[in-house]
Amino acid sequence: MRLRIVSIASLVPLAGCKGWQSALDTHGPGATSLEKLFWIFLFILTVVWILTMLGLLVALRARRDAATDPLAVDATRERTMTRTVATLVGLTAVTVLALTGFSYAYQKRLFDRTENVLTIKVTGHQWWWQVDYEDEQPNRTFTTANEIHIPVGEPVRLKLEASDVIHSFWVPSLMGKMDNIPGRQNVIELQADREGVYRGQCAEFCGWQHAHMAMLIVAKPKAEFENWKNQQIASASPPSDDAQKRGEQVFFTSPCVMCHSVRGTSAGGRVGPDLTHVGSRLTLAAGTLQNTRGNLAAWIVDPQRIKPGTNMPLMQINPQDLDLLVSYLEGLK
User: Residue 270 to residues 43, 83, 195, 260: CA-CA distances in angstroms?
Assistant: First the structure.
């Protein structure tokens, strides 16, 4: 019974090795290279640790005769010990050099560059991600927030920047982490080999809401991605019913318009995320809330309760206007 309990307990830590935010549940070449490197290091260093413990055990069990002069020198013993130490030093050097070589070889793959790929600039803010899709044709560029849609099986180049403090962009299942540094642009490539949604997280402490600064990578087939991209390039659709029309009026007479932009309208704020297609996003507040009508209303009314310290102010708005505003924002798809 005890053995069964111990066996089950030993498997509990392994539960964290799977899931949509695990570096050991890989779905892209970058993350796979890092996973292989991890297992190589783990195997070699485990062997080194075991051999070290065995050597320590042998040394502790080996005792000299109490009558032996502690200052006496045994020439044969000294030569043996010298050879042993020299051999171990040599093996240590070989191990370190081998691990360095493995690390260089695998990291070199991570920083390879592919020509003519989709390029996205990701800017870290406190505490959300601005996502700018670049294109040679200026009319094909657009901005979104906290979600990155990519085609399956194709490398995507990410240009990483920051507007305030150092952030770190990390999607464990797809790539290694890379810092977003103010005044500097870092570049890394990302690729998803399977369709799905992958969660990422800011991996550098960046302030009060660092833990609530997530992003989603949505990998989909090429045709679906192109449809999504064309939808995002388009300006916001005009309100389709009376509630949305009245909600648009509420939006343009409230503080929202000072901080947010909606392409196709006169709203051009640059402080907060672009809201042109906010209704189509999966989450709100950088992965903090699911994008539902209730959560959207709660976020508008009292963002400080949900995400204390965020730059979004409290909204003084009556329930009727709130309902109309939510209808307008939900329709921005």
Answer: 50, 69, 32, 6
At 18 the pLDDT is 61
Question: Is residue 237 included in any domain, yes or no?
Answer: no
Q: For residue 283, what are its two tokens?
A: 């989450």
- Check pLDDT > 60 for residue 232: yes
Exposure on the CB side of residue 132, measured as CA atoms within 13 A: 13
Q: Which residues pair with 124 in a beta bridge?
A: 129, 162
Q: Give pLDDT tens digits for 282-316.
A: 999 999 999 999 999 999 999 999 999 999 988 88
What's the CA gap between 236 and 100, in Å, rounded?
Answer: 52
1 domain-assigned:
no
Q: State the Cα–Cα distance between residues 276 and 87, nearest whole angstrom.
A: 67
Residues 169 and 134 in one domain: yes
Tally the residues of the chain: 333
Burial of 176 (0-12, 13-18, 19+ CB in 10 A): buried
Query: Residue range 268-282: average pLDDT?
Result: 92
Q: For the domain that residue 292 is a member of, what is the CATH number? A: 2.60.40.420
Coil, strand or helix: which one is 115? coil
Burial code of 242-252, b = ≥16 C-beta within 10 A, e = fewer? Answer: ebbebbbebbe
Question: How does DSSP assign 6-66, residue by residue?
Answer: HHHHHHGGGGGGSSTT-TTS--SHHHHHHHHHHHHHHHHHHHHHHHHHHHHHHHHH----T
Q: In the numeric block, which tokens belong to residue 81? A: 């010990």
What whole-number distance in Å separates Cα of residue 254 and Cα of residue 16? 44
Spacing of C-alpha 264 from chain mean position? 31
Residue 2 has pLDDT above 70, yes or no: no
Q: Is residue 224 located within the same domain as residue 248?
A: no
pTM for this prediction: 0.83
